[in-house]
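Figure 6 in text form: structure in, sequence out.
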């Protein structure tokens, strides 16, 4: 199972970007899907979450500007980022709780994407 993130880049303050993260491989289903970010010199923080049922939650710093969504048919999670600010500059990581079969039975595993860099200039 792999998560492949894409969509990062360099933008100016006030502009928008859309990140994507697609899951591939052999698995049963995907539960929660998340976006995290890590700015230089800071700890990784959760940005947004979307459950398998479509419920969402956001960090206070991005509420009203970012929107998380998912396409279950494509096993993909998106992060639409509007009104970007320089403080949004970070490496963005996707994470997913993926259910798959293993020697120990069917269980949920946490997988991370490789990270995509978002740079917002002032």
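Output sequence:
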């Amino acid at each position: 199972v792999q998560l492949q993130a894409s969509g990062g880049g360099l933008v100016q303050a006030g502009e928008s970007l859309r990140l994507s993260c697609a899951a591939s491989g052999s698995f049963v289903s995907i539960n929660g899907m998340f976006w995290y970010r890590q700015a230089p010199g800071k700890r990784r923080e959760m940005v947004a979450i979307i459950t398998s049922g479509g419920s969402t939650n956001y960090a206070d710093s991005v509420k009203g500007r970012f929107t998380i969504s998912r396409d279950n048919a494509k096993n993909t999670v998106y992060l639409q980022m509007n009104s970007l600010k320089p403080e949004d500059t970070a490496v963005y990581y996707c994470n997913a709780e993926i259910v798959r079969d293993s020697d120990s039975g069917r269980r949920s595993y946490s997988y991370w994407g490789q990270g995509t860099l978002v740079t917002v200039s002032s």
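Caption detail: The radius of gyration is 15 Å.
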